Amino acid sequence: MHFVTAKGLLSAQNGMNLYRGCRHGCIYCDSRSACYRMEHPFEDIEVKQNALTLLEDALRRKRRPCMIATGSMSDPYTPPEEELRYTRRALELILQYGFGITLLTKSSLVLRDLDLLQRINSQTKCVVQMTLTTWEESLCRILEPNVSTTTERFAALMKLKEAGIPTVVWLCPILPFLNDTAENINRLLDCCEQAGVRGIVQFGMGVTLRQGNREYFYRQLDRHFPGLKERYIRTYGNAYVLESPNSRDLLELLHRRCRDAVILHDNPSVFRYLQEMEIKQPQQMSLYE
Questions:
Q1: Strands across the sheet with 2-4, in order?
Q2: What is the mean pLDDT of the chain?
Q3: Using the 8-state DSSP alphabet, how is residue 36 labeled?
Q4: CA 286, CA 288: separation in Å to the nearest integer?
């Protein structure tokens, strides 16, 4: 872990990353790609030491409240968060200034901040997004070795449901020849139905690989699944999009079950839901009143 002074925090779309890099160890992670020009080892998490000052300044300057998003490039509940509490302090600012929040995470540590999430959601809108990839715990430990397991994430989704916090699940990536089965998709969708998720984000049944994350992914395949890398290369070459041979059937399964369960399942609708701001009661301009 190391600290830097950032020049800015919020993107044009009101997204923020308090950290850069990750220790979750997910073997497929696109954030390792060379195109993002990370100038430090991926596991050496960069902490934006002035992030909270930048965030408060940005919130003060905005003419009207909106949804703030975090988690697109680095999990807001990466291990240093347990000690540094930057995400929690950012939530306090978002509550103080009357904004909404949507967080994307793979960590049950999000439950630590349930009190703030509920307060934000009672005032404006809070949505927790959780990534799920495989129901099989032993496979989850290989694909995502240093993060909450699927069972732990499912338990977190259930607690968020009980607390009245809306949730969205990212059902991706679906790795060819590993978790691209109807049984896996059905088990994950069972989880989503029980947890009452509002929407499911899905970018096709497959995975994307490009320079940086491709090499890391293949090293992990060699380590855990000898011979599978060669099958990938024979099937896909150096393609960016690696679509599962079962893609059509799995997508039909996904959309049918989501229609039956009344879960949003087309990405534009889900993203509109995430971006739509709500004001449920007058803004409270001070957290400490």
A1: 2-4, 46-48, 19-20
A2: 95
A3: G
A4: 5
- In this structure, what token pair is assigned to residue 49? 């030491």
Q: Indicate yes or no: pTM above 0.90.
A: yes
Q: Report the C-alpha gap between 40 and 21 in whole angstroms.
A: 9
For residues 164 and 115, is the Cβ–Cβ distance under 8 A? no
Instruction: Tell which residue, 189, 200, 169, 192, has the closest CA to residue 264.
Output: 200
Q: Are 116 and 91 in contact (CB under 8 A)?
A: yes
Helix (H) or strand (E) holding 151: helix 150-162
Question: d(Cα 40, Cα 160) in Å, to the nearest integer?
Answer: 35
Question: pLDDT for 116-160, tens place per residue?
Answer: 999 999 999 999 999 999 999 999 999 999 999 999 999 999 999
Residue labelled with tokens 């499912």: 154
C-alpha radius of gyration, the chain, whole number: 19
Which residue type, as a one-letter code, is found at position 94?
I
Local structure of 48: helix, strand or coil: strand
| 264 secondary structure, DSSP code | B
Give the pLDDT band (50/70/90) at residue 38: confident
- Which residues, other chains included, contact 69 with Cβ-Cβ below 8 Å and sequence gap of 6+? 13, 14, 15, 16, 101, 102, 103, 104, 274
CA–CA dist 281, 201 (Å, integer) = 29
Give which of 243, 253, 180, 168 is closest to 209, Cα–Cα. 243
